[in-house]
Structure formats: structure tokens, C-alpha cells
Amino acid sequence: MPDRKQFVHLHVHTEYSLLDGMCRIEQLIAKARDLGMRHLAITDHGNLFGVIPFYKKAVGSGIKPIIGTEVYLTSGSRFDKVSSKTPRELSHLILIARNEQGYKNLIEISTRSYTEGFYYKPRVDYELLQEYGEGLICLTSCLKGEVPRTILKGDMDEAGKVLSRYIDFFGRENVFLELQDHGIAEERIVIKGLVELSKKSGIPLVATNDIHFLKQDDYDIHDTLLCIQTGKKKKEKDRLRFSTDQVYFKSAEEMYQLFDEFPHACENTLRVAEMTELELKFDELHLPEFPVANGQTPQLCLRNLCEKGLNERFGDNINDAIKMRLEHELNIIDEMGFTSYFLIVADIVDYAKKNGIMVGPGRGSAAGSLVAYVTGITDINPIEYGLLFERFLNPERKGMPDIDIDFEDERRDEVIRYIINKYGSDSVAQIATFDTLGAKAAIRDVGRALDIPFGLVDRVAKMVPSGMSIRRAVKESADLGEIYSGDDELRNLLDVASSLEGLPRHISKHAAGVVIAPGKLSDYVPLMVDSKGEVATQYPKEVLEECGLLKMDILGLTTLSLIRLCLNMIRESHNVEIDISNLPVDDEKTYEMLSMGESDGVFQLESQGMKDLLKRVVPRSFKELVPIIGLYRPGPMGAGMIDDYIDRKHGRKKVEYLNPVLEEILSETYGVILYQEQVMHIASKVAGFSMAEADLIRRAMSKKSGPEFMESLKEDFEKGAKAQGIDKRDAEYIFEKVTPFAAYGFNKSHTTAYAVIAYQTAYLKANYPLEFMVSLLTIKSGDTDKVIYYINVAKRMGYEILQPDVNSSFAHFSIENGAIRYGLTAILNVGYSAVESIVSAREDGDFTGLTDFCCRVDLRLVNRKCIESLIKAGAMDCLGYTRSALLDALDTAIEYGHRRSSESKVAVASLLPEEDMERFNDVVREKEEFEQGEMLRYEKEVLGFYFSGHPMAQYKERLRGIITCQLGEIESIPAGSNVVVAGQIIIKRQITDKKGREMAFFTIEDETGYVECVSFASSYEKAEFFLTKGTVVVVSGRLEMNNGLKILVNEIIPVEEAERSMTNTLNIRVPRSFMESDENMESLYQFILSRTTTGGMIVRLYLERGSGDGEVVMQLPRSCSIIVDEETIGGLKKLVSGCEVWASRERING
Amino acid sequence: MGRNMAVKRVNAFVLKVDPVRENSQLVNIFSFEYGRLKTLLKAGRQSAARRARSIEQLSEYEILIYFRETSELHLISQFSIIKDFHRIREMRYGLFHSIAIIEHILKLMPLNEPSEKIYNLLKKSLIAIEGGCDARVVYLLFRLYLLKHLGLLPQTEVCTSCSRKLSQDAYYVPYKGGLVCAECFNGEENGSIFMKSSMALVKLLRSLSSLSLNGGFEARIGDELLRDANRLLDFHISYHLDVQLKSTEFLRF
Q1: How far is CA A300 from the centre of its chain?
Q2: The domain B5-83 is classified under which CATH number: 3.30.1330.200, 2.60.40.2310, 2.40.128.130, 2.40.50.140?
Q3: Model pLDDT, residue B52
């Protein structure tokens, strides 16, 4: 009697069967364990994405993992991408790795199915199966399997032939006929056929369930997932759907019961499981060898490189300490087997530098390595800044070192191409990353599938605070909770979305990761191709690390492109060549600028918080700049480290040390522990630990390990301290005090490296502000918000911004007589090729008219939409016509341009002289310019902001009675004052408060300045729906000085409503000359009476006394209150020529 | 209710309403029982805006007031309308002159000094304007009566210098407190302002001062004479009471 409880699921789709499988690996393993199963397979559709996390989780749970996949099999060639056009013609086949060879073959098959066979789906063919069938077990799969399909066609002979083919590919003992019964009628026919085949061929049967979800109840949710995958609505009839709810994780009992006629088919699952013997190894490193010259070893090569670099970097200043440090590092690198790794990285950086690609000075803890410095990988001298090698590479801690390198983003691809060329395309690939279904996306996707109106769904989605799960949001958000309990449809929406939240949705390429294998990469990991045809791994970067492969982050850093551009511009404008790596580090101008908080555009220092910090710290040297980069983070801020540091620096607080022995370590930071390196130094100095041990201790402290572990750590610390002659009490005190800082302290190596870039950008800004701002605007030209922001910064710096101009502008922002000329590519619909055509045509002389323009540029590149945008942006104002006239004439001018173009061809063909050609008259007719509002709207449409004016200008008169000050005046108002201000929202950042409610930080701007506003949940709740960038709002609140001047918002009102809701009085200043006519006054009065309304605004008439003797005011009774709208304002202005009309908020003690 | 508060019901005209803080109103009233008072109409939590909107300048109300002994600012508890004079608001002249009348009370009547006469004068004046009487005449008459009540009526019977009865054109010299005959008048005395007054104007002022209110409101007076009479009173009030009446500026046209 077999153990009826033992059954092995061999056909399982996890969450990595993207948007099809719904079994989360963790829950799947837990389910198997709960049901007492000792084995479990993973067989996702066409990929191996999830096998490593599955393997690890299963092993960790005491379950034997069975690694497989359900491949898509084409009956033709996998290279043939025409004949089997639709996935429907593909059949399924389950392949399971029996052993290590099988796993390798599985990887190869999966890789090739992507790299060679991808056509709608990753496809395999017979050739692949034949070539890589060794070590694989094959199951004939579901109704979509080749054998079942043939049986359904009634062709048993052919089914037998297919089976024979499989036997041929995989070996008789490795083939199983798969019985499935999900209650589908066809399955009964297939079962009959399979049994018959089994009898005939002797191939055993195996029972499976096509698992897509865990519980039977999940059917409906899974159906929704299918709708999301296929973009259909659930109510649609003609869509992909499962005809059964039986594809869930059944217990052994259920499976035995289901296949009660074929108990041996169930027993065979165990047989298959026992056939597999696969143990994946994760503790081996697979590092590529760096190709070295004959007779050299990598070690020698690296040593030579270091010695050469040492001389270049230090010259005559090489001392024993430096030599010892280098020796120490080289020994550790060699011992740990990373010599080639350093050579590879140094070679890549060398390539970039030799080819003029900007390379960052360093990143992460690699800046702590002297070897990295002398080989040119980093530009930070670790000795000068007290950076520790062990923070980077610790012999006590196994693991790959992580050297991330920044390159200028525009040329990052060149670096990747170099790596591929150098190590071979077989060995190099980019890295996969999975996008998961986030809370808001899940709600929106499910809402779409359930056909709930988008507006409603969107509103619900927005109620989920960012970063919070739906389940938690329902619990913590009162609004969402109310919806959940009060509306059945939306409750269902939230439930379903919550079930799908977090599932992988899509696989894409990691932005920076590259993996290099010592040989063929597909010997280690499966590969795939993305939509651009670029090869990437099927495993994400964490899994690659676990597999012991070398991964590098080749990061693109925009700031480096900015520096490159700025240096070029300085060369052109000033004929000065700046060596950015060797800037003087004591430039007063730079520190002066930073200390004033003028750090817009400066790397890492341009946030408002950073600006405030700069003003408080007042850095005067590079060493004082370094901590600023790291200080502005929640940890140090919360721990009061910032205040302590600043107060001590400025002498407001006494500099004290936990123990005199720490003075040497902490003096540079005035006794405050700021850096992780300082914690390591303390552990070394006080307890006598080696730096490697000290790094382990730092890690343990920062991870807040369990109390028992901390206690043992403390004992070690005290023991070590005792040996150093420090008594137990002191050691205990130091340990207790240092521990929290281990968590808050920051990596000095990384911050120093980034401080270098910050200093470089600050130096350029302080010394070449115009070139810097032009470069900055050019780099940010794709980001309208940033362009607006930096244009305002440039204006504040005193630079004039010249409008885009087809006769003067270039593709990018440029310098023109000390002013900044707008770049044409920053205009919507204007691309580089169009600008090239314009600039090239302009070489023959300025454009003189619209027709001239259309005749001279290449209209295929500079199309109608492009010219329309140029006109709307004001780039054609130079032609001497109004924008409205130019737009009117555009079509005719283009037509002329086309005719001219074709006639020139005829003319050339017939060799007619150019001057004989009829000259085209300009077709533009005089027309009045658009109204200011319309012109600004057009500018906003194509430039992303208002260029020739500011929308606030139109509100100026109407707002004067409402606002208490303009934004430019706000700095002179004492903190604590209540203010009412108005401005356009230029930046908005929504966050979640401690209670999970949404609140926002936003910045408003008027023509005179800007201010940051903080809207807490209570005020934000009422304003959220209109609080978007570009909206003009009136904000009332209290001015507060906390990390800069801010308004703590009391109320936010759209400007259009402000007159109604924030004002109560309409003021009309009537010219004396008007009042002298009784008729006039009567008509004015009658007009006022005609506009009276209940709850309207009180009218105040202002009258000049004459002879400069001031004026008098008459307030009409409330019953004469009038409605204030465009009609009233317009009517008044029309009736009383020269009158002033404004609304105000009249309050006493307000 | 606080310890130092007493509740009183009064009849009063609302002279001025100013918003104060959120939704509350500072209401200047002229009451029959207590004269001019400053009161505060606090907005209730729910009907704040509605309540605040309903009290209206120029109208007469019955008001329940919490009198505070320690403050000049009393609290309105309830109010109900007696007469709203809504028709006045339909007539520019009527409205502008009514506002000017109200301003006179506001600026010339001291706080907490009840005056049945002036209360009735005010009421009758507004009724007359609403009833269609020439607002300019009503206004003039109101001012004369008010000045009479305050004891500040300009001297129009005799020359303020020689005390002889005036029988010819004269001059109004503010610092003299009335008219000066042509013989006594010697130009711009002491640099002071003056105004030539025709005998017709002198007679008008005399007669109006002695007329009963009801009869006076019905009087028909020429435009020029009316303007001169009001101008003379503007000078007078401005000089003797040191008050600038803003609304009168609007009545000059």
C-alpha cells in the first residue's frame, strides 16, 4: 500500500508565469509544507525567472525543489519567425532538470528560446531538444501539449510518433505521459488516449494539476489577472479565460481521489521527484579572467599598474605608510581572488578616460581603496581623507566587492559596448529587473478589468498613500476604510487588487547593471532578450550575486555630462582649459556661494534642506563639505547629530569626547561621530580589533542585532579594551554610546567621492556662472519643471533669458552677449534634425520671412507641427509679424515651400538659372496679436512654461486686496506672522504623514519670488484635487523658519475662487472727472444695482478729493452687495473709463 | 453669561458693519435707549455666515444685547428687523444722502448718550427719503436739526461781529461761528476760509431751522441754494467739530 499522502506537484506556475500564475513563491512553499509534501516543482511558462528564489526557499523549508519550465514548442524551426505566427500554434512541454547537466541544458534551452527563438513567445524546437535533452525529464503537458493535441485530433499513430520523438530526445526513462483532469471534457478524451499510449509504449503515466493559484476561491481573482494580462474587461465574452476553477494547489488526497482509477500515476510523481538530483551551489565565485600579456600573471599586472599609478598620483611624496597600505591592499585582493576584478574595472575606466568619457571620481566604499586610487578607478586619495580599505573589502567577510562607476550618462552605452567587445557578447549581458504590480497600479488595472469608471478608480487609487500596501491603507486611512465598508463594488476592487498587489508584472532591464562571466554566460544563468533585442539575464541582480557572478553597475550620471558641457563652454568662451580632477580645493568664491545656500544645480546640494544646512554649517574647506553630503538624512537628523555638529563647529557648544583616546579619531568632526569609518577606528583603537573585525562589529551594531549577540559583542569589546589598558566601565560607556551612531553614521568613502562632484559643480558655478547655468539648462532641457526652475534661478542671478529665435538660437541653450539664449530643442515638437536644418539654412543669411523660412529649410525635417511650435514659442517673432499672423499664414507658406522645393528640382534639372525663378512673395498678412492670456497659453503648451509674461501678472490687480505681501517680500516678514500670498505652483511633492494620511510640500512662485509651503493632511485633503503644478493658488498660513522659510498652510484656494471666498469687498476707484457728471454716476449706480445679489461683495467707492488731498471712501450697504465676476469687472471698466477695480478682504484684527 | 453682563433689549439703527476675525461683525448702532453703541455680533458655529450677513447698515432692528460693564464693546445676542428701508437703496441720491446722514450720527453723536429726539430725527429722515422726499432737502434739514441739538447751529439771525440783524448778503466765517455782515467782513480774516452767503441762503437757513420736520421735508429748494447751504454746513461741521465727513464728498456732484 503506497503512502497515499505523498504526492508531488510537477506542473506549477508561480508568480513568475507573469500575469498568469498567481502563486507567490513563499506562500506556495508554505502551502506544500502545510500539506505535508516533501517535494515541489516550479514549471513557469517559457522562463526560469523564479527558479533560484524558489530553490532557496524550498531548501530552507525542508522541501526538495524540482526545477523545470513549461516551454513553448514550435513544430518548425525556432529561427522561423513567420510561419508559426500566433502563439496558439505553439505547444507546451514540461522539462525538468534531473541533474546538474539537465539544469545547464535547461538554462541553454531557455536562453536559446529567447535569443534565437523569440517570436511573441520564447520558443524551442526539436533541434534544441535533441541537442540539449540530456539530463532532462519530459512531461507531455496540458491540453496544449503536442501529444494531447494529437490525441484530440484522433490521430493516435501520430501521437505515438511524437512520443517516440520525445523518447529519442530525452531517453525512455525520462519521458512521462501527463494526466490532467480539471473537469474539462477534452481531458477525458486525452486521458483515454494517454492510457492507451502508455499501454502500447510502456511509458509511465504521471498525474499533475496545472496549478495557477493556491486556493479554489482564487479563481475569480485569477480571472481578473488574466484580464489584466490580455487587456480585456471581465464582462467581455470573447476573451481568454480558464474554463475551470480546478487549477489550484490540491492536496495529495484530492489528487489521489481525482485519479482514483490511476493511482500509479500519482505514485509516479514521487518517482519523478526521486529521479531528480540537483544541488545548486551558491558559494562559488565565477570571476572572469582579465587578459594579460604573455608571461604576466594578473597579480603582476595589477602590481605594475599600481606602481605606475603610485608614482603618478604621489610623485615624490610616496612614504612607507603609503607603500605598506598598498602592499596590504594588494595582498588582500589577491587572497580573496579579486585581482582580475580590479584589472577589469581599471581597464574599463581607462578606456573611458582615454576616449574622453567623463568618469566620476568614485562611488560607494571603493573610494576607500588605495589600489582603486592609484589604478585610476577612483580619484579620491583615501589616505588624505582617512578612508578605510576594510570598509570596502573585508577578508573576514566573504562576498563580492562592489565597484560602481559613474560615467557621463550620454556616453554610458559606449562603455557597455566596450565591455561586450572586450569580453565577448557570450560572456556579457545586462541584468533583468522585475516591475511588480504596485498598490495604485493594481487598483487601476483591476478597476479597468472590472469596468469601473476610471475617475472613480483613480480616486480610490490616489487614496492609497505612496509606499503603503492596500491592506494597510484600508486599515489606516479613514477614507479608504469608509469606502471599503460602505461600497460593495469598491470593496471587491480593493480585495482583488490587494490579492494581486506585489506580483511581478513585467521584466525589464536594470538601468545600470552589467554581468561578466568567465566564459559563456549561459553556462551559469539563463538569458533573455528585451524588446530592443539586447541580451539580459533572466535573473535579477541579487540572484546573480548569489550565483557568484561578477556584476558591475555602469551608471550614467547626468552631472558628469553637465561638467563636460560646461568645460567645453568655458573653453570656447574664455579659452581656458580646466582640469576638473585637479581643482584648487580652497576656492573662496565656491565656499562663499555655498555658505549662502546658492547651490541650485550643485550636485547633491540643491535641495532646500541642503541649502539650509549649508547656510548653517558655513563650509570653508572641502573637509567641511564632506559631512554635509551625509548629514541631511533622517538618521542623523533624528539623532540630533546635525545640531550637535553645527553648534560645536561654531563654538556654541563645547567640543567633548567620550574618552580622551577618541580625540584623534573624532577631532575632525568636533567630537561627533559622523562616519562609519570613525566607528571602525574606535573599535580598533579602544578594543584593539583589526580593521576587518572592526568592520564586522560596525555592521553588527548598525543592523541592531539581537540582544544576545550584542551582549557577546560587548564582551569582546570590553575584553579587547582591557588589553588596551582601558577599564571596563569606560569601555562599556563607549560601546553604549557608539552603538547608535553605527546605524546613523554614513559611509565616508561614498560621501567624500560625492563631495568631490559637488565641489566640482559648485566651483564651476561660482567661477563660471553663465557657462554653468547654460550647461545646466541644456542638460535639463527635457525636464520642463527643471527648466522653469533653473530659468528663474538664472534670472535671480541677474541673467537675461532671451526668447527662442530661429535666427539666433541653436539646438541647446547658448550664451549670447552675456545673456542666455533659449535652445530650440527645448520647444515641443522641435527635434535635433529640425534644428540642424534650420541652423544649416541660416548659414546663408537670416530668415527674412515665413515663406523664406519654409523655402530654405528641409520641410521633411521641419514639419508643420514643428513650425507651429516655433511660432507659438515666439521663435519666429524675429520675422517681424505677430504670432497670430504667422499661424494664419503657415499652411500657405508651407505650400510655397513645397512648390519651391519641387520647382528647384525642375530648375536644376532643366538648368534654369536660379534668378529666373519666380520669387515668392511673403504670404503673411498683418493681424492683431493674440491676447496676452492666449499667447501665454501657447507658450506654456510648447515651452512648458510662460516665457513672455507670467500668469500671475493678470491677477496682480485683483489680488492686491487679498494678499498681504508678494513672495519677494516674504523674507522681510517676521516668522510667526500670518500671511496671505498667491502664486503658481511650480513644485509639488506628496508624502504620507505618520498617520498614513497624505500631505504635500509645494512651492509657489510669483513674479517676485517663491516660497515653500507645507500643507498638512487637514488642509491638503480639501485642496488635493486642484493642487497640481501650474495652478495659481492663494495660500493663507503662518510663516515659519524651520530649515528655511516656509508657510504652514491654513487654507489653499484656487485664485479664481479666492475673490469670492477670501474677499468681501469690491473696491472701485472712480476718477473725479467721471463723478462730475450726474449722468455718469447714475449709470454707475444703476449698473451696481443690476449686479446686486444676496451674499455678494460689499461695494466701496473711492473718490479723489482733488488737488492731491487724498481720497474718500463710501461703502454701500450690504444690500447693495454685488456679484463679482468677469461680467461685473468688465462692465465696470467699460462704463467707467480709467477706473480701478479690485477685491479685498476687509477685516479688523483679522 | 459672564458676571458683568446684563441683557437689554433695544431698538436701534445700524450705522456701520465691519467684519472682524472669521465671520464676526463689529456693529455700530444708534439705539433709542442708550444712544450710540459699539457691539459685536459673533458668528455661531453653524450659521456663522448666514447670521453675519443678515445685519444691515441703515436698517432698524430690535436687538438683544449683552452689556458688558468692563468694556465698550457689547455683544449682540439676537436681533430682529423693524424696518429695512429697502427702497432707499434703489435711489442713488436717496442712498448716498442716507449714508451721509448715518455718518453724521456715527461721527457726531457721542457714545452711550441716548437721545430720543435724534433717534426720531434719524428715523423720520430716512422715512422721508424712502417716501420720495428730495433727499437733498431731508439731508439739509437733518443736519440743521442735529446741529441744533448739539448746540452748534450756525448763527444766521445776526452778524456775529456787530450783532445787527442781517438784511443783506453776508459772509460765513467759520471761526466766528456764523455769518458776518458785509460791513464787518474784511476779506480773508486771519487767513481763514469763508463763504459768501446770499440773502436767499440766509433766509433759507433761518426758515428751515424754524420749520417743523414734516413740513420741512416737503420744502422745494433750488439746486444752487441747496448746494450752497450744504457747503456752508460742511465748512461749519468741519471747523467746529473737527470731523471730516467722507460721504459728503460724494454729494457734491
Answers
A1: 42
A2: 2.40.50.140
A3: 43
- Please give the full DSSP string across A29-88, using - where no structure is assigned: HHHHHHTT-SEEEEEEES--TTHHHHHHHHHHTT-EEEEEEEEEE-SS-TT--SSS-SGG
How far is it, in rounded angstroms, from Cα B116 to Cα A831? 85
Q: Looking at the partner chain, which of A1075, A1117, A1148 has a beta carbon nearest the beta carbon of B18?
A: A1148
CA A694 to chain centre: 35
The residue type of B247 is: S
For residue A420, what are the CA distances in angstroms to A284, A348, A815? 24, 11, 39
- What is the predicted pLDDT for the residue at A645? 86
Other CB atoms closer than 10 Å to residue A157's CB: what's the count? 8
Contact B154, B240 (CB under 8 A): no
Cell of A879: 520675422
Tell me how long chain A is. Answer: 1150
Which uninterrupted H or E stretch holds A1024?
Answer: none
| Residue whose C-alpha cell reads 574664455 in the numeric block | A574
B253 close contact with A: CB closer than 8 A: yes
pLDDT of residue B3 exceeding 50, the answer is no
pLDDT score for A918: 42
Q: Rounded to whole angstroms, how far apart are CA atoms A490 and A504?
A: 23
- Radius of gyration for the alpha carbons in chain A, expressed in angstroms and rounded: 37
What local confidence, expressed as pLDDT, does residue A1150 receive?
Answer: 34
Query: Cell triple for residue A153?
Result: 485530433
**Dihedral sign of CA atoms A73, A79, A81, A83 in order:** negative
Is ipTM over 0.90? no
CB pair distance less than 8 Å for A1103 and B89? no
> A157: which DSSP letter?
H
- Three-state secondary structure call for residue A632: coil
Cα–Cα nearest to A715, from A740, A741, A697: A697
Residue matched to cell numbers 512520443 = A163
* Residue A260 phi, psi dihedral angles, 5° rounding: -60, -25
- Cross-strand partners of A91: A73
CB atoms near residue A398 (< 10 Å): 9
Cell matching residue A885: 499672423
Contacts of B60 (CB under 8 A, 6+ apart): B11, B12, B13, B14, B81, B82, B83, B84, B85, B123
User: Splitting chain A (1150 residues) into consecutive groups of 10 residues, what average pLDDT does each group show?
Assistant: 72 91 93 93 94 94 95 89 59 95 95 91 93 94 93 92 94 94 91 93 94 91 88 84 89 92 92 93 84 87 93 90 93 90 93 92 87 93 88 76 84 90 90 88 90 82 82 82 83 91 86 87 90 86 87 88 94 92 91 92 86 89 88 67 84 84 84 84 84 78 68 82 82 81 78 92 96 94 79 89 94 93 91 92 89 89 93 93 92 85 54 42 77 84 81 77 80 79 86 80 83 90 84 89 82 81 81 81 88 82 69 78 83 84 63
pLDDT value of position A536: 92
Residues of A with CB under 8 A from a CB of B: 1064, 1075-1078, 1081-1082, 1085-1086, 1089, 1094-1095, 1101, 1103, 1105, 1112-1120, 1146-1150
- The rounded distance, in Å, linking the Cα atoms of A161 and A171 is 14
By the 8 A CB rule, do B63 and B76 touch? Answer: yes
The structural domains of chain A, ordered by start, are: 25-214+249-275 (3.20.20.140), 298-421+545-558 (no CATH), 577-762 (no CATH), 780-943 (1.10.150), 951-1057 (2.40.50.140), 1065-1144 (no CATH)
Gap from A1113 CA to chain B (nearest CA, Å) = 6
pLDDT of residue A561: 92
According to DSSP, residue A163 is labeled H
Q: How far apart are CA A644 and CA A672, in angstroms?
A: 7
Partner residue opposite B99 with nearest CB, options A1077, A1103, A1114: A1114
Torsion region of B31: left, alpha or beta (phi above 0 gives left; psi -120 to 50 gives alpha): beta
* Least Cα separation, residue B215 to chain A (angstroms): 28
